[in-house]
Amino acid sequence: MRQQKFLFGLLLLSGLLIPGLAVPPEAAACAGYTITVGSDGSRPQELLTQIMAELIRQRTGTNIRLVRYKTEAELLAAAGRHDIDLLVATLGPAGSQLFKKQKLLALKPFGYQSSRVVPVFRVETLKKFPALRRLINRLAGKIDDDTLRRLIAELDDEQNVRVVAKKFLAEQKLVFGG
User: Fold this and answer.
1) What's the pTM value of the predicted model, to 2 decimals?
2) Contact 53/165 with Cβ under 8 angstroms?
3) What residues form DSSP beta bridges with 122?
């Protein structure tokens, strides 16, 4: 029995048992730390930040602190002050220049609103935890307009944002359960 548990553990860690769900070794480096994720409080932002937060929490063991701002301008100002590590932003024509100036890095788009909505990390956070970039990029292209509308409709049915986020991640086979 002991040998079976050991073998099961090895298979799970290597990804042979359930491909795509094994935690990359460098992701373990995030465990015990706190990542601050900011939102402008809108329903789409709240949902997307919760999806990212749950993915990080479940796949790395990292503590997540969610902070809600009243407007996108306040959110971007907080990012510029380095009060948050991760946020969701809509890329405008000057977006990438602003991000570069504030030492922020836009990752691959989620896939909705003409692919202009992207997760944005502080460069310093990604240097400290490089596995987070690859982990969050697994969401790229998975949340199109129809998917976002469906998820928001689930929120409208009085479901908790965290519950909807966990269910979505499980459907995408990015985490266990839902």
Assistant:
1) 0.80
2) yes
3) 104
